[in-house]
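Repro case for the chain-ordering regression, as requested:
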Amino acid sequence: MTRALVLAAHPVPDSFNAALHAKTVATLEGRGWDVDDCDLYAEGFDPVMTEVERRGYHDYPENTESVKTHVERLKAADALILVFPVWNFGFPAILKGYLDRVFLPGVSFVIKNDKVAPNLTKVRRLAAVTTYGGTRLRAIGAGDPPRKCVTRAIWHVCRPRSMKYLALYGMNAASDAKRARFLTHVGAQLETF
Amino acid sequence: MRALIVFCHPKTDSFSGAVLETVKARLDAAQAEYRVRDLYRSNFSPVLTGHELDIYLDEAANTEPVAQDVADLQWADTLIFVYPTWWYGLPAMLKGWLDRVLVPGVAFIMPKDGEDIRPGLTNIKRLGVFTTCGASWWLTTLIGAPGKRTLTRGVRAICAKGCRTFYAAHHLMDSSSPESRAKHLDRVGQTMDRLTA
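-- result from build under test --
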């Protein structure tokens, strides 16, 4: 059975992002997948890498000590799905801190001769479900950092067989109908990926 | 010149700390005023809360949780970031400073019908970005340098029109040598000299 880790990063339970999160989990469970639903806000995840963690960053496996459970959940995943809003041209800090603290050397990547080699190749499917306040053009103008982080940086350590980046732009001005269409689109895309 | 330096590193004896000292020394030499926001030493909380999101659009209330940061931002004409690049991006601590402090009414003006978002930090005329990367220049460029772009394109877009950008990064930090680090501090100094000129 495919085991999926869903990482969600929105603080408000009745937000549109929470609806996307619920849709994601329901769709994947509907496919018969074993879904590990990790709501970073609800779980009170601390995104701040400490001084001790920074000093021991490269020493695997000791570096996983403070985030052991999260590392085990990540290592068990065959599919990784991120659900988040784009704030200030990037991930919310709570999700960025997950990369800082859990995507460690020896866990998500290994360094060989100064080169980053993938170490999360168990993840065969990678997806992001996200909303941007501004327009697509504005995101492109800024170099679209969150898209690059998912489709290049995270992609690079997973080398998935299948990847989806599902984004709704212009959230600030989006009508209810546009949001509903995106919600349906997300369901359909996750049904087949 | 009035510079706000946002400094983010968990270690007190880090190379980023040495970069910060170089930046401060050059500001002193240029007789510039500056304030340092040391996020780790002041235990800044980078997690935007549900409550803050509820009041996000309320410009009378949204600055209240971060009043000093907003005052510093509005006082400055120069904004400088000193931080390590982690996962090609900003450390969560620094990303969260953007999330919580760059609120509507301060950082950008929310659109009325049919308009686009307008810049709010029009008092910021110079932007300095000083970082260290574990990855090589090639890999960082291939990934698209999301951290650098968040600041030099994203944040710059809400600063004054024609805001000048200054950037210096030390790559392959994990295999750096005393020589490479000294060379980089020279580069930081030269970049700062251009910024303060």
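Ordering looks correct now. Chain B is about 40% helix and 20% strand.
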